[in-house]
Amino acid sequence: MAPPDSLTEILAPAETLAPLLRVDGLSVFYGSHQVVTDVRFELARGKSLALIGESGSGKSTIVRAVLRLLPGEARCTGCVAFDGQELPGLSERRFRPLRGRAIGFVPQDPGNALNPARTIGAQAIEAAALLDLPDKAGRTALILETFVRVGLDNPRRVYDSYPHQLSGGMLQRVLIGLAVLPRPALLVADEPTSSLDVTLQKRILDLLWRLRRDLDISLLLITHDLAIAAERADSLVVLKDGAVQEAGSPAAVFASPASSHARSLLAAVPALNPDRYAGLRARGPRCIGTDAGVASKIAVSSVTKTFMVDGKALTAVDNVSFTVPAGTTHALVGESGSGKTTMIRLLLGLEQPDTGDISVAGEQIAGRSPGSLRAVWRRLQIVYQNPFTSLDPTWKVEHLVREPLDRFHIGTRRERAERVREALAYVGLGEHLLSRKPVALSGGQRQRVAIARALVLKPDVIVLDEPTSALDVSVQAGIVEVLLSLQAELGLTYVFVSHDLALVRQLADTVCVMHRGRIIEHGTVMDIFDSPRQPYTRSLLDSLPSGAAAVDPLLHRRPEPLGTIRPTPRALTA
Amino acid sequence: MTAVSHVTAAGGLAAVRVPPAVALSFAVIALVIAWSIVPGLFTSFDPVNGVPADKLLGPSAAHWFGTDHLGRDLYTRVVYGTASSVESALIAVSIGVAAGGLIGLLAGFLGGWVDVVLARLVDVLLAIPSFLLAVIIVTALGFDTINVAIATGFSTVAVFARVMRSEVIKIRHATFVEASFLLGGSRWHILSRHVLPNASRSVLTLAVLRFGLSILVIASLAFLGYGDPPPASDWGLLISIGKNYLKWPWLVYAPAFVTIATVLSINRISRWLRQTA
Domain ends where: A218, A249, A268? Predict the structure, then answer.
């Protein structure tokens, strides 16, 4: 293969006229069901384009159509032209040389994309085989060089490792490396960061954009995160139900979104609307501040928990103390592995601390048996991260929400049924859902059921373990609204665990930043976000996508329209 | 989302589409069950006393499967033999599900030394070829169709225990089980209301599959003469008798065909259940 850089230099002036990828009037059908309708966009050589949409918006289907990976029963009409060639018309024999060599692909979940039974090197050799390098040594050298380019510090070690020996961020780097190794003209990245931490997310995106610049690759990014897309992409395409809602440069889309869908998406992104719920939050009985006079609902004092892993002591929670005043929201923030999950398990009494005291609503948690903790759990509940695993698939909604009432023998049969209805109404679910099983509910509806189940016991404290991280942005906004209006109405105290700082800013009153089991910084949301003292906190804040820099001032000038704040839970329309 | 609303719009069972092959399988099984319950409705001949003049006749409109060496209608013999063949397979599977399920449930849910002991027991059982095990047990108990059923059931215990244990372990660590614990659920409540219903899905599809296999094992044991002696007409026994009259091959083909059709139908249904579950 000729040195790609000099080649593109020579050809560049002639080719800038025709777009590298042109999709025109693309429609995809599964049987009689149309999933993509008349989608058109163009991607110029060396530019980047972001396809934005929520789950089910058809963005992955479009990418599959471009890569010709659609399953057999799908029917596809319209034009997909790559470098002047019509892709759908090409025979498989003529298309194969393009796939991998000219069009690279970075998959969504790095954990599943590599064969766990073979070393990274053995799989990288396959990608290198796409190039016409004669000898194995040359290929290996190229692979190692590429690994360095994608920011892997010890390429030799990575080369000899198995996938399970590397972290998610490293695996994603490997996959990006393998995709850019043959120097493709187009790189397609399907939600490349959705399974990664915020700080990693920023680094991976930075890497993609650096590679795009250095290697002159066009980038087609699929994402559900408007903020990410707006910050980096040259142009945006907003999708809903398989149709283009809006297209254009980020600045244009942000400044004057033409479609209502784009407007509601913009309003839903926490990073772009830090004060969206200010009105809702102000209504609640609040006592923010660090005055000692305020009664605290939760008090954690110098708690330490050590696990033995492979004979080595691992301190998951190291001398952690914090208090949460009644009726407020306290956020635990940190990357995965920072000890926040262990902390809430200690708080719930699911694990016992080695040292320290924990009290919730005046009751000691540490050192009690599960039997005596039952009484505490009546007033202390949890909403899990993933509503797809936290609800028993064989139970109906009514039964699921009634379970805690049955277990604690509360009220008569009729009273229980009444309380189930009441709890569902609180979270904005209609009674027609009572007889459904979780399979027949959407992700947002499931999480609302999970919240209703936590609520039905009328607890004082609810622990929220990343309650929206498995959900779409606009669904997330609905859940946050429910949580805040419940807090305002019932005076609940929340402990909110998250790695999404933008969401924390919208939701929480006080924050603890955790890093390697320690609390490195704590204070009110204002203090932490406006004047972080620790470099780690600052790096977390920096990794927040903020929308395109040019667009930022625009957003800050525009006050959030009042219409988007709904003080009472509404029935789910979706 | 669209798939979800689709299902709910169609509502309940109507949304489940049955492929033609599965529908045919259900028809075959329905017929076999009907034979076992009311054999008299399907034939007017006597399964025990034949008409010597009509011996060894080929298949015809009067005698669909022909007649045997004593002049008995073979179709009638097959129909009357269904009851013991199918019933004993049912008994066998029930024993396997009950004993194996209980062992797997306890091992998976309690863990610790209970799991270690029960898992080793299951390993030992799995190490013995199951047909050999069945032969040994039926020899010890005495030659009788019920004993054949017990022996067959016992030989499948280990398989059910294995599947149940792995399912229970998977579900025990599910988030919704921990959620139920935090919602005040006792161990017994979690076991009976969460773990068991979720685990039983894959155990039930296995049970259907094993039902077909048990029919084969029981026919094999009857063929070898471990079951009830003639004039009983277990399918395996009919094949065994038929093999002595090689000039009249329908005596083997007819009962063999019925056995194969039944087992294939059950297998198809089991696969369909596994796909839809």
Answer: A268
Q: Let me know: does A563 contact A266? Beta carbons within 8 Å.
A: no
Residue with tokens 């600052």, as numbered in its chain? A538
- Do A302 and A355 touch, CB atoms closer than 8 A? yes
CATH number of B18-52+61-276: 1.10.3720.10
Q: ipTM, 2 decimals?
A: 0.72
| A229 and A327 belong to one structural domain | no
**Which residues of A are less than 8 Å from B194 in CB distance?**
392
Instruction: Tell me the two tokens of residue A464.
Output: 């929220």
**Nearest-CB residue to B176 (from A378, A390, A408):** A390
Distance CA A239, CA B60 (A): 69
In a shared domain, residues A42 and A133:
yes
CB contact under 8 A, A392 and B180: yes
A254 and A322 in a common domain? no
Q: How far is CA A396 from the centre of its chain?
A: 28
Q: How far is B263 from chain A (nearest CA, A)?
A: 30
Among B7, B175, B197, whose Cβ lies nearest the Cβ of A386? B175
CB contact under 8 A, B179 and A441: no
Residue B4 is predicted with a pLDDT of: 40
Flag whether A305 is in a domain: yes
Is residue A397 included in any domain, yes or no?
no
Chain A neighbours among B 189-208 (CB < 8 Å)? 189, 194, 197-198
Domain that includes residue A337, residue range: 296-379+483-540
Residue of B167, B172, B175, B201 to mutate, testing the A interface (most A Cβ within 10 Å of its Cβ) = B175
Q: Looking at the 3D structure of chain A, how many domains does it have?
A: 2
Test A394 with B183 for CB contact under 8 angstroms.
no
Establish if A278 belongs to a structural domain: no
Alpha-helical regions (H) of A48-192: 59-67, 92-95, 110-113, 120-128, 136-149, 155-160, 168-180
> What confidence category does residue A550 fall into, taking pLDDT thresholds of 50, 70 and 90?
very low
DSSP letters, A154-191, are: -HHHHHH--GGGS-HHHHHHHHHHHHHTT--SEEEEES
Whether residue A303 sits in one domain with residue A262:
no
* DSSP per position, A369-398: -HHHHHHHHTTEEEE-S-TTTSS-TTS-HH
Cα separations in angstroms, B155 against A280, B105, B138? 65, 18, 11
Nearest residue in chain A measured CA to CA from B1: A442
3-state SS, residue A77: strand
Are A344 and A243 part of one and the same domain?
no
In sequence order, which residues have a C-beta less than 8 Å from that of residue A366 and are 6 or more positions away?
A: A303, A346, A349, A352, A353, A356, A357, A358
Mean of the pLDDT values across residues A525-553? 73
Residues contacting A533, CB < 8 A, separation 6+? A521
Per the CB < 8 Å rule, is B183 touching A403?
A: yes
DSSP symbols for A483-531 = HHHHHHHH--EEEEEES-HHHHHHH-SEEEEEETTEEEEEEEHHHHHHS
**Residues of chain B with confidence (pLDDT) below 50:** 1-15
The three-state secondary structure class of A59 is: helix
* pTM for this entry: 0.74
Asked if residue A405 belongs to a domain, the reply is no
Are B184 and A377 in contact (CB < 8 Å)? yes
How many A×B Cβ pairs under 8 Å? 62
* Three-state DSSP state, A449: helix
Q: Which residue of B has its CA nearest to A386?
A: B175
Beta strand A312-325 pairing with A186-190: unpaired
- Classified as helix, coil or strand, A94 is helix
What pLDDT, in 10s, does the model give residues A349-370? 888 888 888 888 888 887 788 7
CB atoms within 10 A of CB B4: 14
